[in-house]
């Protein structure tokens, strides 16, 4: 954020206008914008050569890129981020879009799932992108849980509740997780889940971790006192027990060491699972994710505009969004997503949902 502010402060009025025009031209046409095109639209009358020099400076700053030799320029991911944060003019939602959205949620139908399905279809239709709708969180007992790896740093949790509701949530898993470790985590959680809400599951895991920690400390106490072992990184989340002179360990001490190793493995596994549960509970605020900032869709060069919706108590209970190419019409889509989130929140609050 500080780097972006520094770059922004280094732009003079001429550079700002050239940059804004390049980005707006690219978002409008999807094509690189050349210096000759810009000279016809700039407020200040400049030669094509002067505009090219300004564009080269913007390229050196990492804001623009030239996809082909002697071609025009396109914004980089950093450039798009700068434009969205500092240059974009967010329009008011169009009256036709507003009417279409209000018609979507205007039904007296009590089925929340059908309402959100219609909202998703309306968002997709008016923005020509894929819609994203996260349904309200609730605290029914968990019947089944599944973790699905989407990429190295993105995963999906599928929650099936005892009341028949199903929720899908995307989260960033703890580092180093594999599809098989996620299956093991799901199997472990499912064995504990029956009759417990997600919050109760997290509390149960915290107690399990505390019990394992006490058991390890009790077994290790004699080894540390005798000088055969010492703690590395005491007090840290992932401290280790360093054993000296393993050949000197006999009888019960060797058995204790193997027991400690097994308990450590179990402790780390439970910590990872507890972190899974913590991460699935977290929610994001209003955000625009561009390109690789959007971990779930970065491989396809997509962007995500997402906004939370709230219940009557101003608690975030879900989210709506639009996924599309990085060349999204952000100025139009941001107010559509924002208005949709407000509308859904009001409708659900009026029905006493969430």
TrEMBL record:
<dbReference type="GO" id="GO:0045892">
    <property type="term" value="P:negative regulation of DNA-templated transcription"/>
</dbReference>
<dbReference type="GO" id="GO:0003677">
    <property type="term" value="F:DNA binding"/>
</dbReference>
<keyword id="KW-0805">Transcription regulation</keyword>
<keyword id="KW-0678">Repressor</keyword>
<protein>
    <recommendedName>
        <fullName>Heat-inducible transcription repressor HrcA</fullName>
    </recommendedName>
</protein>
<dbReference type="InterPro" id="IPR002571">
    <property type="entry name" value="HrcA"/>
</dbReference>
<dbReference type="InterPro" id="IPR029016">
    <property type="entry name" value="GAF-like_dom_sf"/>
</dbReference>
<keyword id="KW-0346">Stress response</keyword>
<comment type="similarity">
    <text>Belongs to the HrcA family.</text>
</comment>
<dbReference type="InterPro" id="IPR023120">
    <property type="entry name" value="WHTH_transcript_rep_HrcA_IDD"/>
</dbReference>
<keyword id="KW-0804">Transcription</keyword>
<dbReference type="InterPro" id="IPR036388">
    <property type="entry name" value="WH-like_DNA-bd_sf"/>
</dbReference>
<comment type="function">
    <text>Negative regulator of class I heat shock genes (grpE-dnaK-dnaJ and groELS operons). Prevents heat-shock induction of these operons.</text>
</comment>
<dbReference type="InterPro" id="IPR036390">
    <property type="entry name" value="WH_DNA-bd_sf"/>
</dbReference>
<dbReference type="InterPro" id="IPR021153">
    <property type="entry name" value="HrcA_C"/>
</dbReference>
<feature type="domain" description="Heat-inducible transcription repressor HrcA C-terminal">
    <location>
        <begin position="114"/>
        <end position="334"/>
    </location>
</feature>
<dbReference type="Pfam" id="PF01628">
    <property type="entry name" value="HrcA"/>
</dbReference>
